[in-house]
Amino acid sequence: MRIKTFGSYTKLPSSHLVGCTVISIDLLRSSTSMTWALVNGATKVIPTTEAAEAVSIAGRMGGCILGGERGGIKLPGFDLGNSPFEYSKEAVSGKSVVVSTTNGTGALCGTEGASNVLLGCMLNCTAVARKAVELGNDIIIMCAGTEGDISADDLYAAGAIAEAITQMTNNVSPCDMTIVARMIYRTWKTDHREFFSTFHCSRLIKMGFEKDVEFCLRRDITDLVPEYRNGVLSI
Ligand code: MLT
């Protein structure tokens, strides 16, 4: 089983996805918030690349929650931003959620052609690794990155998931980027100081989202693995 990691989904040709299981990661904060919405009972999450598309889908569906951000800030007229704490049981249980974020939702929307698309983050790290191993396909860990560049926070989560996969099966052939991601995870897992100084993370902390960052780093608090099919994330 090959594991390939891409630091930014924008660098990943769609022809590479055919026959693979994709694990899509935007650790800070979109993968975490969408996973948390489903853990808290949202019936489904519909990710969109463009904010206007989210507004139009929500308008057509009626009765759903509209969430998302640009540059970390809640979009004007939207119900929720991109903090996982906003996707509480009270806010989302029993409801459909339509979400558009700067990078994370666009990454998911570009995964046509893959056999399976799973949403990964630290909250479901071991569960998403197990599910990917069970599916038996080659695995692509696709990081959202930040505006076309790699984002070290995503690589940290990619490394944690790759490490968990490696502990579950010997039948693994990691690409060089996967090995680098595992090194990042091993280096930072017990000391997050350098993680906190990385570009997107430090920007979120400066904006007052330190508690979000701490939450996104919590590991294995759910066994639920959202799967993206036909434009919809569900569990
Ligand atoms: C994104 O999609 O780029 C992020 O989730 C941004 C954020 O942290 O709000």
Annotate the secondary structure layout:
Blueprint: E1 2-6, E2 21-25, H1 30-39, E3 44-48, H2 51-61, E4 65-70, E5 73-74, H3 89-92, E6 96-100, H4 104-109, E7 116-120, H5 125-135, E8 139-143, H6 152-168, E9 173-174, H7 176-188, H8 193-196, H9 199-206, H10 210-216, E10 227-229, E11 232-234
Parallel strand pairs: 1-8, 1-9, 2-7, 2-8, 3-6, 4-6
Antiparallel strand pairs: 4-5, 10-11
Helix pairs in contact: 5-6, 6-7, 9-10
The structure holds D-malate (MLT).
D-malate binds next to loops.
Rg from Cα: 16 Å
Q: Please list the strands of the largest sheet in the order they lie side by side.
A: 7-2-8-1-9
User: Using DSSP, what is the number of strands?
Assistant: 11
Q: Note the gap between the termini.
A: 24 Å
CATH top level?
A: Alpha Beta
Give, in order, the helices and strands.
EEHEHEEHEHEHEHEHHHHEE
Outline type? globular
**Mind summarizing the main beta sheet?**
5 strands, parallel
Q: Give the CATH topology.
A: putative 2-phosphosulfolactate phosphatase
Our estimate of the beta-strand percent is: 15-25%
Low-confidence stretches: none
Secondary-structure-derived class? alpha/beta
Domains, number: 1
Measured as a percent range, the helix fraction is 25-40%
Level-2 CATH architecture: Alpha-Beta Complex
- Ligands and ions found: D-malate
Mean pLDDT: 97
* Total DSSP helices: 10
